[in-house]
Amino acid sequence: MHFDVIFSDEADDTFECIGEQIMAKWSEKELKEFRRRAYKVTEIISKFPLIFQAVNKAQTVRKAFVHKNCSMFYRVGDTYIEVLFFWDNRQDPIFL
């Protein structure tokens, strides 16, 4: 089964924010690599939504590593996957 993947507004915002940080610190090459990895993870979770570790007791939110410095948090629905937000792993830990 193939799940549709949708991005929340916060996911769009945090994806762009991290992209801007990459461009400011490195180059367009690294930005393209970040985007490529994010889209690859999105493709993987659309086919195998439970492949990444659950981060809450109800196991509804999962954390996918895009890069050692960035993770993507998503929620699995009945027929879709909602990407909630991207997180810079160098920030203070979060608790869902």
Helix content class: 25-40%
Q: Radius of gyration in whole Å, from Cα?
A: 13 Å
CATH homologous superfamily heading = RelE-like
Strand order of the largest sheet: 1-5-4-3-2
Which of globular, elongated, flat, extended, rod-shaped describes the shape?
globular
CATH topology: YaeB-like fold
* Secondary-structure element pattern, one letter each: EHHEEEE
Number of strands: 5
Q: What is the CATH architecture assignment?
A: 2-Layer Sandwich
Total helical elements: 2
User: For the record, what CATH class applies?
Assistant: Alpha Beta
Key words describing this protein structure:
YaeB-like fold, globular
Notes on the protein architecture:
The protein is of the alpha+beta class. It has one domain (4-88): RelE-like (YaeB-like fold). 39% of the residues lie in helices and 30% in strands. It is built from two helices and five strands; from the N terminus they run E-H-H-E-E-E-E. It has a five-stranded mixed beta sheet. A hairpin with a 2-residue loop joins strand 3 and strand 4. Helix 1 (9-25) runs antiparallel to helix 2 (28-47). The longest helix is centred in the middle third of the chain and has 20 residues, at 28-47. It is globular and about 40 Å long.
Layout: helices, strands, pairs:
Elements: E1 4-7, H1 9-25, H2 28-47, E2 53-54, E3 61-67, E4 70-76, E5 80-88
Helix pairs in contact: 1-2
